[in-house]
Amino acid sequence: MYEGEIAIGPVHATMLEPHRLRLFIEDEIVKDAELTIGVNHRGVERLMEGLPVEKACILCEKICGICSHIHLWSAARVVEIGCKIEVPERANHIRLIVEELERLHSHTLLFGHAFEILGHETMSMRSFMLREPIMQLFFEISGNRVHYSCPIIGGVRPRCNISDSQIPVILDRIEKYEEGLTKLINRTLNDPMIVSRVKNIGILDRKTAAKFHAVGPTARGSNIKSDVRKMGYVPEYDPYEFDEILLDGGDVLSRVAVRFYECFESIKIIKQAINMLKDCKDNRIYNPNYELHKFKPIDCYTEAQRGEQYYSYGLDDEGQVRQAKVRTPTATNLGAMEEIVKGYHVSDAELIIASCDPCFTCTDRLMVLKEPFKK
């Protein structure tokens, strides 16, 4: 029997971002694994310390390119909660529309990436073709495809105000997206070759998911309720009706399928938001009448595409950020994936890791200080 180690990374074709995965094997079965992150260490929390809060918010948007909106929205929500800043109703609807469009493009990106790891280039390209009109919507709404810079403290930027002429375009795009996604799902779930590669692979049971504090679709694929939008942490979602998708398979198929079905819920939310936008009597998208004041670090939770996202910071007397803390969902999901990769074939290892939709660069943001920051 052969016993040895296979080292993957820090640059590997199956992953979009650098990481290092060591697989300790017997023949071709993984007996143990060690996943190392931090290759893209950037120290964002340290850079936030002492910045004016407006600049800190813009910096937070750069933490991730795939989920840039939710980072900026989270950063803005902290100061809005701490300073009790009222956000106009119309601005909240626009923020929410952009966030759910971002969830669509993020989930569809994972579909394409998962098919690529499986070696199914045709389905991978179909996923990216399905995603492209959503990316174009971002450009038409904000002028950018990646960093939209939509939320600002007290509302949204004027350039992101969704006009009456843009509403039919958005509705048409998501209708076509829904049709294309339905075809993609039917093709995927009826393809025995694809299903055989993802079903009963990388099983994450409820106990292990709870132990490692798995969040988002990763936890919901193991039948654990984890959507903070449904828990009251994001009151902007309270007027909307949508379901929390739960599956109990716990395998790669379940984690991907949760995202498939969540896309339909996002479409449902977008349609409701557009109707509310039409009926909104207050056309303000920004509240300039606010004052920043000192507050101690407070907690803010949002539901990013990969799961629960945590932001915390306070402001000093000069309106500068202090004690910034950001926790992204990948940080805990990766621990669960490292555990469950054991016992599976080497060829399944990267697929299992990828099934939690990891964002390594999003997670590599910390910097440990030996002494307090000095201005």
From TrEMBL:
GO molecular function annotations of the record: ferredoxin hydrogenase activity; NAD binding; nickel cation binding; oxidoreductase activity, acting on NAD(P)H; quinone binding
Top enzyme category: oxidoreductase
Keyword field: Iron, Magnesium, Metal-binding, Nickel, Oxidoreductase
Binding-site list for Ni(2+): 64, 67, 359
EC number, UniProt record: 1.6.99.5
Signal sequence interval, chain numbering: none
Keyword check for Electron transport: no
Top-level taxon: Archaea
Binding site for Fe cation: 67, 362
NADH-quinone oxidoreductase subunit D domain: residues covered: 118-365
Residues annotated as binding Mg(2+): 45, 326
Cofactor(s), names only, from the UniProt record: Fe cation; Ni(2+)
PANTHER family listed in its UniProt record: FORMATE HYDROGENLYASE SUBUNIT 5-RELATED (PTHR43485:SF1), HYDROGENASE-4 COMPONENT G (PTHR43485)
The protein, known as: NADH dehydrogenase (Quinone)
Biological source species: Methanococcus vannielii (strain ATCC 35089 / DSM 1224 / JCM 13029 / OCM 148 / SB)
